[in-house]
Each structure stands twice: as structure tokens, then as C-alpha cells.
Amino acid sequence: MKIANREQSAVELVREALAKAHEYQDEYHVFNWINDDAIRKAEEIDQRIAQGEEVGKLAGVPYALKDNFLSPEGESTASALILEGFNSPVTATAVKKLEAEGAIMIGRTNLDAFAHGSSTENSYYGPTKNSKDVERVAGGSSGGSAVAVALGIVPFALGTDTGGSIRQPASFNGVYGLKPTYGAISRYGVVAMASSTDCIGFFTHEAEDLDLLMGVVAGQDKNDQTTLPDFYRESTAKTVKKVGIIKDFDNEAVNSEIREALKRKIGTLKAQGYEIIELEMPALKYALAAYYIIVPAEVSSNLSRHDGVRYGYRSADASSLGELYENTRNEGFMPENKRRIMIGNFVLSSGFYDAYYLKAAKARTLIINEYAKAFEKCDVILTPVAPNPAFKLGEKINDPVAMYLEDVMSVPLNLAGVPGLTVPAGKTKSGLDLGLQLVGPRRSDRTLVEFAKVLEEVK
Fold first, then answer.
1. In a domain? residue 129
2. Is residue 131 part of a domain?
3. pLDDT 10s digit of each residue in the chain, 459 long?
4. CA distances, 98 to each of 25, 155, 304 (Å)
5. Which of the residues 118, 165, 171, 186 is marked catalytic?
């Protein structure tokens, strides 16, 4: 480690990251808040090293934090007006673990409000711009974190992935993006979107860094009953020999340059001796519909706590308790938040639960079983992340169906709880980044990371 070996000081590294953060902020809008006080933590680490004290694996390494992670540093807004001014008394478990190893948070990154979106255009503070073309979206909901890494501001950033919110912006910005197995990393201290599909993950420049980060944060947490024992450090990567390709994802609805990138990668793998297995997974056609029933149902429940009484934004235009609730939520939520709350309340309401939510839950079981059958035939699956490269700002924001269709290849993994990893896959003719995703069975996270390292060498 350069800092521990005194080749570079923590102060130098953090000062450089902060300078870049300020330099790029106006053009790209990466951050909701920049932590200039991070220099103080860097000075403490340098002092400890000078005194011969032990420091952590990430000592002095600057990182960016998606603004839906709770931490006492800065306001935890989730890019929503309704949480403006909220200083959390709680620190997310993932943040605690990273900072126990010496990592230093230099800023809170922009996202779609409450992580509802695929473009970071649904932020109360305005959109983040794509790292290669400022007229295009960064992807979402973790657009700010992806761009922070892509622009070289920080070596890694934290994100959340409920239906593709790490993998899709990673693809749009040419970086690695890992959505681990559901439960691999504690969700404690993260603003909930949909509790049964939310996952904590990372953006990095190299697959090797994902290995280090997973080794730090994975494991059980008494504050999150859905966490799994630390299988990551205890597991051994499986040697990948058979790579599955989903036939249904190779069609005219997918951008031709993405299909070509997939074809090139398949050809390279074949030349290296890997067996390519064509998979038929018909249940995946239900994934998008099931996702946009199950997730809004959970969203409507999780957002019911925001009422203007206990914390966050409170409407000044209210003369009764009923008006306070109504006006605070109307003013404080973005249109996409309201849309998902209304859908969620509808599918859970009396008379519609069986017709919608119950059927979606059954479809989810079919999808889980479909993946289980697929992994009896192959070790990993390789697919596109999204049907299109980064699209123009404003192009889909007023067409929710078109926006939701961008998630068609990413949401099945969250419904099934399996891990997915975006790997860079070149560029379009116009210079936009392309990515592909590796998918594995539950608890195969180390296998995906190790195989991604192999793919870095196999061009």
C-alpha cells in the first residue's frame, strides 16, 4: 500500500480527490455534498503511520458515498426534498466497516430520489451527466457514484442495486459494478427502497479492487436479519468452463452495437476454449412486470414513514394534521416517487392483491427456479446489462414505460437474489461506453470477481 509504505501521504491522495470533485462538479453534478473536512481524517492517518501504528487495508483511500447511506457526515437526503436537512444519528454498517479500515468519504453522490429511476434524472437536485457525453444520462439510480469512479475522482464508490442501479450506470460509464448475492452485505443504515431486492455494492476501475472491498464489508450483521454468514472470504472461486447465453436477450429490441459487443466476447471466449451454452429461460419474460408490482408494493410501505412529523422536510402550508401529511408528501416526493407509491398501494389494496401482487410473487418463484435450472448447465451467464447505451437527457423521462424497459435485463437478478457484475465491453462508434454482465448462482460472488479478472486479460 503506497500510503502505509510512505510512498504517498493520505493527505495528498484526499486533497487530489477533493480537487477533482470540485473541478468536475459544475459540469457533471456528481455530488450532492463534498466533504472538505476529509483532509482532517487524512491527517490523522498520516500521523498514525508516522507514529508506527497499524492502519487498515484502505488507510487513506478516498471514496464516494451514494446519498442514501446514513452517516453523520453531511445530510443524508437520498436526493429527495423530503429528507433535506436530515443529519443521521446512525452510520450504515457498510460505511462503518470501510472506515474502520481507514477509507475516507470525500462526498455524497447524486441519485434518483429514493433510488427510484434508471437515469439519475429523478433527483431533486438535478441530473448527473454521463462521463463521456454530458448530453446523455449517467444511468441510475447510482449515477453519481458511477461517474465519480469513471472520472477518476475516487478509486471506488458505494452504490445500491434494487433492479440494476449499480450495473446499468456502471455499463453507461465504462467501470465495474458489482451487485452481490442478496444478503451478502448488510443493508442496515441505508434508506430502504424495496427490502426484498435491495443490495449494497461497489463501482471500481478494476476487478481486483472488488475482491478487496468484498473482503472488508461482506458478512452477517445483527442489525440486519437478512444478512448471510460471510461466505465470500470463506468461499473458493469455481473454475469457469461453461458460459451461458440467454437466447431471448439476442433480438432486434437490443441495440445492434450491444449485440455486437456480446458476439465479440463470445467469440473470444470460444477461442480460449470456453464452452458456450445457449439457454432458454422463458420465465424471464415475466420479470419486468413482476418487478414493477413487487417493488412498488414495498416502496409504498417503506415511504409511509416520511410524514413531516418526525424528521426531514415539513410543509409550511398546513392548518391540520391531515393537511400536514398530505402537503408534506406532495411537496417532498418527486413525481416518480408518487407514481410508485400509488402503484404499490393499488396492487396491495383489497380486491387487487390476488390479481396482481400474489401473481407477481408466483412469477418470482418461477424466475428463481429458472436460474437454478440454468446453472445446472453452465457456471456463469453472460448477458447485456441494458438494451441500449446511455440515452439522451430528457429522452425517456416523460415516458415511464420506456424508462422501465431499460431494466428488462437487470431486474431478473434482483428478483432471484443472484449476484451480477458489470464488466466494461468497449465503446460504441460514437464513443459511448458499453458493458456486459456476468451472472452466477447465489453465493458465487467470488467466482464472478475472479472470472472478471480473467476477462480483463482476455481481450
1. yes
2. yes
3. 566 566 789 999 999 999 999 999 999 999 999 999 999 999 999 999 999 999 999 999 999 999 999 999 999 999 999 999 999 999 999 999 999 999 999 999 999 999 999 999 999 999 999 999 999 999 999 999 999 999 999 999 999 999 999 999 999 999 999 999 999 999 999 999 999 999 999 999 999 999 999 999 999 999 999 999 999 999 899 999 999 999 989 888 999 999 999 999 999 999 999 999 999 999 999 999 999 999 999 999 999 999 999 899 999 999 999 999 999 999 999 999 999 999 999 999 988 999 999 999 999 999 999 999 999 999 999 999 999 999 999 999 999 999 999 999 999 999 999 999 999 999 999 999 999 999 999 999 999 999 999 998 776
4. 24, 13, 31
5. 165
Which candidate in 88, 118, 141, 145 is catalytic? 141
Of the candidates 9, 20, 41, 66, the residue annotated as catalytic is 66
Would you say the C-alpha torsion 111, 425, 130, 335 has a positive or negative sign?
Answer: negative
Domain count along the chain: 1
Q: Is residue 264 assigned to a domain? A: no
Domain span at residue 184? 10-234
**Which CATH number is 124's domain given?**
3.90.1300.10
Active site residue 165: yes
- In the residue annotation, 319 being an active-site residue is answered as no
If DSSP states are collapsed to H, E and C, what string results for the chain? Answer: CCCCCCCCCHHHHHHHHHHHHHHHHHHHCCEEEECCCHHHHHHHHHHHHHCCCCCCCCCCCEEEEECCECCCCCCCCCCCHHHCCCCCCCCCHHHHHHHHCCCEEEEEECCCHHHCCCCCCCCCCCCCECCCCCCEECCCCCHHHHHHHHCCCCCEEEEEECCCCCHHHHHHHCCEEEECCCCCCCCCCECCCCCCCCEEEEEECCHHHHHHHHHHHCCCECCECCCCCCHHHHCCCCCCCEEEEEHHHCCCCCCHHHHHHHHHHHHHHHHCCCEEEEECCHHHHHHHHHHHHHHHHHHHHHHHHCCCCCCCCCCCCCCCHHHHHHHHHHHHCCHHHHHHHHHHHHHHCCCCHHHHHHHHHHHHHHHHHHHHHHCCCCCEEEEECCCCCCCECCCCCCCHHHHHHCCCCCHHHHHHCCCEEEEEEEECCCCCEEEEEEECCCCCHHHHHHHHHHHHHCC
Q: Residue type for 448, please?
A: L
Residue 186: inside a domain, yes or no? yes
